Amino acid sequence: GIESDEEIRHLDEEIKELNESNLKIEADMMKLQTQITSMESNLKTIEEENKLIEQNNESLLKELAGLSQALISSLADIQLPQMGPISEQNFEAYVNTLTDMYSNLERDYSPECKALLESIKQAVKGIHV
């Protein structure tokens, strides 16, 4: 009987340790579940924000396309030196050239170039942003 009592006590201790271990694991699982739920919520929020940003970008791209077309229409008859008339193909180069000309207004341009810049100013006045 002594060996049986000792075995029973030993088994009771193991059962107690297993129960404590199970409680700790369950608590850890609850923490993990809470973290997962929080992360899923954050992910959903981020996805919604990204969707709004994409919609905003689409709107801005459409507006930019409209402004580009308006600029091309306004400047269709004005030819910059060493460039052909403005078109969708040379739009970026044309705008870069204009930007350079306007950022260097202190440069001593020829009278033709000054007249051209004034014509461009008048042409783009009608474009509303």
Automatic annotation (TrEMBL):
MF GO annotations: DNA-binding transcription factor activity, RNA polymerase II-specific; RNA polymerase II cis-regulatory region sequence-specific DNA binding
The keyword Transmembrane is assigned to this record: no
Coiled-coil portions: 8-70
Domain of life: Eukaryota
Cell compartments where the protein resides: Nucleus
UniProt keyword terms in alphabetical order: Coiled coil, Nucleus
PANTHER family per the UniProt record, alphabetical: MYELIN TRANSCRIPTION FACTOR 1-RELATED (PTHR10816), SUPPRESSION OF TUMORIGENICITY 18 PROTEIN (PTHR10816:SF9)
UniProt name for this protein: ST18 protein
